[in-house]
Amino acid sequence: MSEKINVKQAVDIASEFAQQIYGSEDAALEGIRVETVEYVESSNKWFITLGWNDAAYKEIPSAEMAGIKSKAPRTFKVFHIDAEKGEVVKMEARDKQ
């Protein structure tokens, strides 16, 4: 790519990367959403934070039967995307919000 990618393209790249790494053939990541976006001109990178529901979380059957709905824990990752190449160059965990 010769031109800088825009924020929507950066989010799409981060989302696709997350699906490839953490999703499965049977199920896509659940509840994925954009948490933060930032462009850093000095490094020419987009920093895209995505969050999704933790796939390992299972509702406790007795709580579900009692009508108690707990909030599923979420996973947060920051994707560093080269704005010229349109590639993820780094991914890191982010503390839960």
Question: What tags apply to this protein structure?
Answer:
Nuclear Transport Factor 2, Chain: A; 97 residues; alpha+beta; 2 helices
Description:
By secondary structure, this protein is an alpha+beta fold. It has one domain: Nuclear Transport Factor 2, Chain: A. 22% of the residues lie in helices and 34% in strands. It has two helices and four strands. It has helices at residues 7-22, 61-65, and strands spanning 33-40, 45-53, 74-82, 87-93. A four-stranded antiparallel β-sheet has the order 1-2-3-4, with helices on one face. The longest helix has 16 residues, at 7-22. It is elongated, with a radius of gyration of 16 Å. The mean pLDDT is 86.
The main sheet comes to: 4 strands, antiparallel
Distance between the termini: 34 Å
Helical content, roughly?
A: 10-25%
SS-based class: alpha+beta
What is the CATH third-level topology name?
A: Nuclear Transport Factor 2, Chain: A
Q: Unreliable segments (pLDDT under 50, ≥5 consecutive)?
A: none
Q: What is the domain total for the residues?
A: 1
CATH class: Alpha Beta
Strand composition percent: 25-35%
Strand order of the largest sheet: 1-2-3-4
Radius of gyration (Å): 16 Å
C-alpha geometry: elongated
**Average pLDDT reading:** 86
The helix tally amounts to 2
> Quick one: how many beta strands?
4
CATH architecture: Roll
H/E element sequence: HEEHEE
